[in-house]
Amino acid sequence: MEQIRVNTNIHCENCVSKLTPHFDDNQQISNWSVDLNSHEKTLTIEGESVSTDLVSQLLDKEGYKITSSNNSESFWSNTSKWKRASFNTLNCLIGCSIGDFGMIIYLQAYYPNTTMAWQMVLAIIAGLITSISLETVILRVREKFDWTLALKTAFGMSFISMLGMEIAMNTTDFVITGGKASFDDPMYWTALIIAMIAGFLAPLPYNYYKLQRYNQSCH
User: What is the CATH number for 56?
Assistant: First the structure.
């Protein structure tokens, strides 16, 4: 009988529940436990011919990994979490863009005398509303949350991310075009692409940190 102890980025009981089928169904493992009270979230495994490679493979099935408590490089090098964080951020970007640019187009079409400051404020508010709405629907459909919990989760986990995204997008758009939507001007579409890239990159590290540190995300 062999025993292995490794530090992990497991965070809570929900993480353990996700991993339970993989560890329980593995015939090489006879017993395993996670010390959630320790800072390192130490995983202890007992069994025949168990190895760190086996443990790493099982953890990776749910996006977790073996870590070192003082290894910041390891913290930021989880490829699967970067992919999931990128997917989540893209969903936020789509939601934000719908409200953001929709509001700008609406104001310039029907209220062309609106000041630039008010355009930016209203565009940010509209972007936040549409993004939270989209994420609420995704949580309701994909995760089967009830509507109240879906709305609360979308708002609580995403507000800082979306606010950073909105500020980045509107600032970039304003610097390049002055905030004017000129659809016949190629520079406008160039600015739009640059603004969306900035809106995607600005909150991405934050979303990754939340996902890696606490296993929290919008979706």
Answer: 3.30.70.100
The tens digit of pLDDT for each residue in 180-207 reads: 666 677 777 787 788 888 888 888 888 7
CB neighbours of 122 closer than 8 A, spacing ≥ 6?
Answer: 103, 107, 114
**Per the structure block, which two tokens stand in for 144?**
């089967």
Indicate whether 164 and 85 sit together in one domain.
yes
Check whether residue 181 and residue 210 sit in a common domain: yes
Cα distance between residue 83 and residue 178, in whole Å: 33
Query: Which residues span the domain enclosing 123?
Result: 79-214
Tell me how far apart the alpha carbons of residues 99 and 122 are, in angstroms, rounded to a whole number: 9
Collapse the DSSP code of 85 into the 3-class scheme (helix H, G, I; strand E, B; otherwise coil) and give the result: helix
pLDDT of residue 215 exceeding 60: no
Does 89 lie in the same domain as 133?
yes
> Distance (Å, rounded) from C-alpha 130 to C-alpha 104?
14
Using a CB cutoff of 8 Å and minimum separation of 24, what contacts does 21-26 make?
22/58, 22/61, 22/62, 23/58, 26/54, 26/58
Do 59 and 66 meet the contact criterion of CB atoms below 8 Å apart? yes
Q: Are residues 115 and 62 in the same domain?
A: no
Number of domains in the chain: 2
Same domain membership, residue 121 and residue 70: no
Query: pTM value?
Result: 0.57
